[in-house]
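Hi R.,

Here's the chain you asked about this morning:
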Amino acid sequence: MKISKKDALTWFRFFAELPEDEELLTRQTELVYATMYQIEAAVEAQNAALMAQVPGLKSLCGRTLYVGPEDRFPAGCRSCLLGTGLSAVRKTNRCNIQCKFCYNYGELDAIEPIGEGLWEIGGTKLYERDLDMLLSIQKKPTGIAYVYLEPFMEIEKYYGVVRRFREAEVHQHLYTNGLLATEESLRALGESGLDELRFNLGASNCADKVIENIRLAKKYIPQVGIETPMTPEFFEAFFAKKEKILATGLDFINCAELHLNDNNIGNYLGENLYACRLGYVSPIWSRQLTLKFMRAAAEENWGIVVHDCSNMTKLARDLNLKAKEGGWFGASGYAFEFSRFPYEAFLPVLEDESFQFLEEEPLPKGYNPGELY
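And the predicted structure, written out as tokens:
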């Protein structure tokens, strides 16, 4: 069903007015899915045109795209996309800032604590002293990632765990906004054996303090890079300080396609959105800015990897992880992240006269307003 943009808008205006607990009829759901397909097809055509302008575009086994030297591609991403995935290691339930793109926006003061002295590893609560038992029982992962929320709020608690996983030869990377890092804590992380540190530079709007901490981190930690949701604010701030950032000696920039959930979508209402494979919902501009960013990196020969960590990359990640876990063919944890479909959030793209569907046809009989029962 190649629904027209006009018909899609008519139906989505109707769906947006329905009570939250009202379920759609089967044919109404077909109309929603047809609309999502039409939007996604148009977005993919636009992205394909941008990709064609990126010189030296490379693929990692068909699972993601990047530009730059292969030897600087982050090992943590290789583990995520080719290895046994990334086991999440969680400790800190607090953050020192609040970002509009954060998946926990608006609830940072109500994040469930892990527990005194405990770590959450793969969903299980463990003490540091339990790591020997864990490693002796289960097959060790190719990599782990320290996430949730800002580790430098209590970074001194991390050194022992980092050291233990280093002894077990498990690749480790850690995420930070970088504002609380010091040369002493960065040195301690490096001495403990952290393999990779990723700075969310967009969280601080490319603050000079964080840029300096990237430079310092590179003195002590083998791989250092930036991983930030691609937004217009980050795009603009980065290019205003491009030379200073590249002079830090960083290895890579992961440009994450910003995806939305119930917490942060309110900060992006009014933007043109799309859903990738009926899963992650994102502003259309996010990946398009990434592709423009990659084009600049390739044309100007920045000498680092710039990675298109898109929604499709996330889909490949989850397919890989489920396969490594022995899941059935096609199994994946990739999914839609809203408690209910946000019909109203797609009205702006359907109302945008400059956004056109690639191909349209009249609705089949039985799918027009007044014909559904």
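Residues 53-331 form a domain with the TIM Barrel fold (CATH 3.20.20.70).

Let me know if you need anything else.
M.
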